Amino acid sequence: MKTLIYSARAFEIPYLKNANNNKHKLIFHKKSLSEDTVQDAKDFDAISIYSADKADFSILKQLQQFGVGHIALRSAGYDNVALSSAKKLAIKVANVPAYSPFAVAEHSVCLLLALNRKLLKAQARIKRYNFKLDSLTGFDLNKKTVGIIGTGAIGSVMVKIMHGFGCNLLGYDIVEDQTLCDTYNLKYLSLSELCEQSDIITLHVPLTAETHHLIDSNLIKQMKPGVFIINTARGAVLNTEAIIKGLEENSIGGLGMDVYEHERGLFFKDHSQNIPEDMLFKKLNELPNVIITGHQAFLTKEALMNIADTTIYNLTCWSKGQSTENELTTEI
Ligand code: NAI
């Protein structure tokens, strides 16, 4: 299949080439899919996109006119694709459902530990030969209550890891996983009960109409003072303005974030010579109790290998006229 790989980043190209092994004609495009770049897909059978790419109705319509019948997502999340429009336009869309839940859960823990133990501040001091310990006090995770919102592939790994730390585990999900309760003593509660009782809240739900701004000012008011919030899911699951207010008022003790509500156009690029006027992000970036990574939770060798393998697998199924079990356009 002749496939245009949008948003191709240097770190993933060797994995994609290796998985492809010349099966498909892959063309790597540095730019992301947008109204400005959609015409580059003319005469391709398929495109492959990532979470930074936008596939709304207008873009999908143009893709269909150009003869693009397949979209292979190199991500698990698909909130950036208008799936119902794709289905109407007979464009098949498939994702990589679970490339490494460990990568994302482990990064969530990494954010939590770095935030709690003031790792970046400590490191900056040591680099300057300042070995003072003032204002580096954290807290034991042992016996703390962790609220896990979304106990699917990533959330359930989070349950296992935090169980290892000796934490009490609370869960909130529309589908409850009884084995997590039986094995790790997880207790499912309502969202507001989870917020009231958790010392740490970690988010692992997809971004949907129901989860958009799931964490808002009302819920923040119900949280324990000084609660830590970790978000590696999608930025808009949090109401960013409400979160900033909570951080400024110290009702939220710390925020670890790998995703940001307005990350499209900001993340995955070097803006150091022309800093964007994004006041919300600037505020977050300046707050001392906020640690930010730029959507890198997935970024492990194992995940990249799995993403590449599944992307090529999806393309191969389509090239043989078969459907793939990763297709999202069959479920609507
Ligand atoms: P999953 O589908 O295995 O689990 C999601 C869980 O959320 C499911 O148990 C589902 O029942 C639950 N859920 C869905 N809607 C809900 C609602 N309205 N209220 C409560 N629970 C709800 O997905 P997985 O693999 O665990 O990924 C979760 C999310 O993590 C992805 O959708 C993606 O947005 C994000 N992600 C972020 C990455 C990063 O690099 N930062 C990488 C991979 C995924």
Structure characterization notes:
35% of the residues lie in helices and 15% in strands. The protein is globular. The chain has helices spanning 13-20, 57-65, 83-88, 101-116, 119-127, 153-164, 178-184, 191-197, 217-222, 240-248, 279-286, 301-319, and strands spanning 2-5, 25-28, 46-49, 70-73, 92-94, 145-149, 168-172, 187-188, 200-203, 227-231, 252-257, 290-292. β11, α11 and β12 form a beta-alpha-beta unit. With 332 residues, it is α/β, with parallel strands linked by helices. The chain has a seven-stranded parallel β-sheet with strand order 8-7-6-9-10-11-12, with helices on both faces. Strands 2-1-3-4-5 form a five-stranded parallel β-sheet. The two termini are 25 Å apart. The chain has twelve helices and twelve strands. The chain has two domains: 2-99 and 301-331, 3-Layer(aba) Sandwich (Rossmann fold); 101-292, Rossmann fold (3-Layer(aba) Sandwich), CATH 3.40.50.
Which oligomeric state applies?
A: single chain
Number of domains: 2
The end-to-end span amounts to: 25 Å
Structural class: alpha/beta
CATH class of the largest domain: Alpha Beta
CATH level 3 topology of the largest domain: Rossmann fold
Determine the CATH superfamily of the largest domain. Answer: NAD(P)-binding Rossmann-like Domain
Shape verdict: globular
Q: Counting H and I runs of at least 4 residues, what is the number of helices?
A: 12
Q: State Rg.
A: 21 Å
Average pLDDT taken over every residue: 97
Return residue spans where pLDDT drops below 50 for at least 5 consecutive residues.
none
Main beta-sheet annotation:
7 strands, parallel
> Strand order, biggest sheet?
8-7-6-9-10-11-12
Question: What string gives the helices and strands in order?
Answer: EHEEHEHEHHEHEHEHEHEHEHEH
Bound molecules: 1,4-dihydronicotinamide adenine dinucleotide
| Strand-residue proportion | 5-15%
Number of strands: 12
